[in-house]
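User: Can you predict the 3D structure for this chain?
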Amino acid sequence: MLSVTPCVNAQQAKDYFTRHMDRDYYLRDSAEFPGEWHGRGAEMLGLSGQVDKESYFRLCENLDPRTGEPLTPRTKADRRVSYDFTFNAPKSVTLAYELGEDDRIETAFRDSVKETMEEMENAMRARVRTEGRRDENRATCNMVWAEFIHRTARPVTEDGVTLPDPHLHCHAVALNATYDPAEQRWKAGQFERLVRGKGYYQAAFHSRLAKKMAALGYGVERDGNSFKLAGIDRAACEEFSRRTEIIEAEAKRLGITDAETKGKLGQWTREAKPEEQMDIKELRKAWHKRVDDGQRSAIVEARGGRETSALNAEQAVDYALSQCFERESAVTQKNLLKTALIQSFGKASVEDVRNAVMERDGILQRDFKGQHYITTREALKEERDIIEFRAGRQGDAQQAGRKQSRRSRPGSKRRTARGRHGDPQFPRQGHRVKRRSRNRQDPDDAGYRFRHREIRQTGFYLCAKRRCIAGGVALRGLRQRGNGRAAANRPGDAKTGPRPGDVGG
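Assistant: Here is the predicted structure, written as structure tokens:
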């Protein structure tokens, strides 16, 4: 799992470092490891190796860690100081690491986090604000981030004993600064694309970790949007997921069902870390007492060359195309890759799946407003067909409307000089207004608004609305024609104003 938490207070970021990072128990058997600097931006600032307090504090205050001078041009009181990208290993992976005592998993986990953060670093942007030009984002491809590996969850007090559960996770803290080589200065980073693509980056992280676990001899099985190791039963995982049980119980009591609010409950219900922490040997001894011999043996034997059941890259892309384009005519590349990666955990790498998408025949791609969209020739043809179909239906409806309007002209037998129902205050054109109201609800005589809504509901509307493929041009022209026709059918519009006899002005 991947969660993203922005920090908007420099003092808060410093306090977190003081409480949880700046400790003197970073020993070989500690439950937490010292932080390490990563990223091309860190190299530009001369930062490497272990995270030191002085450099970290200066970056939180938007100062150059080398000189102490302002790093970026603006330092607002409410500026975003950093973003905490928290990578969580599946519980079965944590148990194989701690109870199975397979130290190879630590390297696999670190490498998976690093590779995913490097991919995010390549997507980093900075805002360009030049006089006489519109604002836009420019690629910088560098980031300053610190890695903090933790091996336990927050402690839980049970029967008077306070003990944390094993939970391998990493806090990748990215400072809000990136170097713009075009302007040759440091600027605030644009993280919205990374936050918006969280689902993809989570799938990419899981894919990398699953592939590495399979290479170590573990069997990998898909578990929802994540994965689990074959042979490690769910009961053992639930035994060491007491924090999840507490959060779920509190959410049930408060009637909370959405995942985002449940994530906040995790912060509200957690206990503080004790000042004196147990080393990993003591923790492992206590954890072993909570599982029986069968579960312990299953965890140790899980590395014994089990088979991984998943789709290969080509099969995963086939599945993603069938699922993504069932209701949409265009999707972002990240959404398509995310769907394919989830189906191929442990079998195909991120690069395998991406290459399978790029080499697939019949796929059309287009960049639009900072997003990379994908569609297929079949989806494009279906969208054009639905547009032509609705255009023909509108023409038939308007033709029928013109025939009907002849019966309501002045002098018709159905009209009197006093208007409808003999009421001299009711305008003669009132019948026409009433008929138009009915026509908007009649699918056989639908106006622009109904057609516009129906296209959107079919799912073909999205691609054309954004005009990210050639089919968008067809709908754009149709919308322009439709707007004109709709204006002719409405009581009044901004250009022509109300016509004589319109009810309500």
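Residues 257 and 316 are 31 Å apart (CA to CA). The first helix runs from residue 10 to 21.
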